[in-house]
Write a structure and sequence with these properties.
single chain; 349 residues; alpha/beta; 2 domains; four-stranded parallel β-sheet; 10 helices; 10 strands; disordered N terminus; disordered C terminus; binds 4'-deoxy-4'-aminopyridoxal-5'-phosphate
Amino acid sequence: MATTSPSFPRLPVGASPRFLPTARAESVIDLIGNTPLLEVGKVTRGLLRRGVRIMAKLEGFNPGGSVKDRAARKMLQEGLKSGELTPGKTIIDSTSGNTGIALAMLGAALGYPVELVMAANASRERKRIIQAFGAKVTYSDPLEGSDGAILLCREIVAKNPQRYFKPDQYSNEANPLAHFETTGPEIWRQTNGTVTHLVAGLGTGGTVMGTGRYLKSRNPKIRVIGVEPDDPMHGLEGLKHMGSSIVPPIYHEEELDEKISVSTEDAYEMVYALGQIEGILVGQSSGAALIGALTVARELKEGCVVAIFPDFGERYLSTNLWIGWQSWNRSRLARLIAKCRNESASATT
Ligand code: PMP
């Protein structure tokens, strides 16, 4: 794979041009990672003790628009290295959307056809982006969620196993490894090693496992916290309610220090607050991650809590999320904050 040119880091606006690297890459593949870290200071104002900060890792800045670019790149690289992915094969996987976009983008860049199986109720934007990259989409029963897509994908591959390379993000160790090698080191560098907590939503579990492992390898005291929907019938695209789902083989709950359940309603409220108060438009799972981060941070005397914001909000403008965006106003922040205070007791260890 043509990943020879180093990805260029994003430098602050005021950086001296003398130190600016050439902003040029040989392939879109090389633009994955090195995403910025944003201090979330306004939504949290007055809520946290002086020495406590919350930082958001803005994964929407990846070229495919999400955190999943990292895992998809690593899974394809490993497939090429092992000889499982060879010219003539089609890349196939089941995906709730962002992995599909990442695979479709990378398949196009590398010259491999891509077929994706996803629940029919994935957002219209996601479906269209995937098609725009030239990938083929097969829809599974929306009522069966991501598990339905997993099962249908297995059936399709079983009928013609030679034809496909299936990265299988749920059981592929290259998924957490991507985060061990990139997301973790970036956060360590960006916080000058001062990070004390990592908060990330649970989908495949790849982000939280790999990033958490790296950070703990640098400082075993860093606490790693997973965020999941509080209900099997949730509206947090990209996240899994582990208790009622097929648990991904790459996910090892015992490695988490804590797990926090977040309601769809609160996550949406936080997305609206971030839009209007921080000026950043993110997806539902970012709202959930920030609720988790706040829940943890408000108990601390000092610390640096890093929350992963997996994608931006544009790709959800056709979903229910948009309805709230239109009617939300700042006066609702106080109610949301009060709720975070009261409900932090629902955090499970
Ligand atoms: N948020 C969104 C929007 C996602 O698409 C995903 C991936 N399904 C996640 C969070 C969770 O990431 P991971 O699969 O690494 O656990």
